[in-house]
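FW: tagging you since you asked about this chain on Friday. Here's the raw sequence from the shared folder, copied in full. Didn't touch anything.
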Amino acid sequence: MRKYLLSILTLLSFLPGFLTSANAQEDYRFDMGGGIGMTGYLGDANTANLYRNPSWDLELLFRYIANPRWAFKTNFYVGGLRGNSEQMTNVFPSGENFKFSTTFYELGEMAEFNFFNYGMGERYRKLKRFSPYITGGLSLTMWSVEGHTYAGFTIPFGVGAKFKINRRLNLGLEFLMKKVFTDKLDGEHLADPFAIKSSFAKNTDWYSTLTITLSYEFSKRCQQCHYKE
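HL: got it, structure written out here
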């Protein structure tokens, strides 16, 4: 009987350590995934309705998770853009109408700030499974219109929301507006349709992405971490 009691006491002595290890917060450094969504265009071939001629986009993403509030994302987009000046009330001086369709490729770096401490785990860290966020960064975009290939820097900025399906899987929704620093997103003919020269900062071309994403976290920071807030 004494042997059984000693065995039980020995097992109980290891139990707190086992439970602490099993329930320890699993923090991961990286997040990787992809998404699908729709695009919109604003420019000389569409000056009012962002989604008058919607198209598609696909995204690949890789995040470095700095902490529950900050993340830094590298993303790659491929998508379509379309516009048609016949749908506008404005009339060009020449009386002509222009329409275009293109596929763009975009590589960018973004910073994300979560409104809440995003994650799952101990209550003392006040982690939330859901968090809206704001984001901004810098991208390089390439596209072709009427046989001509163009490239330009883009400033993307916008808002999003994240939801943890479980400790590793994240569901996201992100809307970005992207300012293109060239007036040739819709082609050479619409670079200066009103013959009014504009400065580098006053180009009229924008596009947007609205994307649903699914991503997976990996690479644990440590098996058991003791955080100091």
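FW: Residues 11-24 have pLDDT under 50 and may be disordered.
HL: agreed, and The two ends are 48 Å apart (CA to CA).
FW: great, closing this out.
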